[in-house]
C-alpha cells in the first residue's frame, strides 16, 4: 500500500483523513517483471482486483487464506487437466 495525500488524491480513499493506493501486479513468469498492473484505492482487496486481471495459462497465483474466493478459483481449477 502506498500512502497518498487525500487532498491531492481525493479518489484514493482509505480512511477518513488518509488516502492510499494499492498497485496490484501480474508478473511475467519468464522474467518476473510486471506485465499488468492495476491501481486501486488502498482499501480494495487483492482478491477483488484479481477478478479484473488477466492470467495466462500456467500462471502461478499466490494469495493468503484471507483472499480465498471460490468464484474466482473455480474457473481456474476447472481448466486444469490432471495426468491419468
Summarize the structure.
With about 80 residues, the chain is an alpha+beta fold.
Entry keywords:
84 residues, alpha+beta, three-stranded antiparallel β-sheet, 2 helices, 17% helix, 24% strand
Textual characterization of the structure:
This protein is an alpha+beta fold and 84 residues long. It has one domain. 17% of the residues lie in helices and 24% in strands. It contains two helices and three strands, in the order E-E-E-H-H. The chain has helices at residues 46-50, 70-78; strands at 2-4, 19-27, 34-41.
Topology (SSEs and partners):
Layout lengths: L1 E3 L14 E9 L6 E8 L4 H5 L19 H9 L6
Antiparallel strand pairs: 1-2, 2-3
Please provide the count of β strands.
Answer: 3
Number of domains: 1
Strand content: 15-25%
The average pLDDT value, as a whole number, equals 76
What order do the helices and strands follow?
Answer: EEEHH
Multimer state: single chain
**Radius of gyration from the alpha-carbon trace, in angstroms:** 16 Å
Amino acid at each position: 500500500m502506498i500512502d497518498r495525500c487525500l487532498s491531492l488524491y481525493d479518489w484514493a480513499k482509505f480512511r477518513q483523513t488518509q488516502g492510499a493506493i494499492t498497485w496490484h501486479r501480474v508478473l511475467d513468469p519468464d522474467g518476473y517483471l510486471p506485465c499488468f498492473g492495476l491501481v486501486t484505492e488502498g482499501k480494495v482487496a487483492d482478491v477483488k482486483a484479481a477478478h479484473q486481471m488477466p492470467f495466462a495459462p500456467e500462471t502461478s497465483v499466490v494469495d493468503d487464506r484471507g483472499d480465498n474466493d471460490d468464484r474466482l478459483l473455480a474457473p481456474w481449477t476447472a481448466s486444469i487437466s490432471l495426468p491419468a
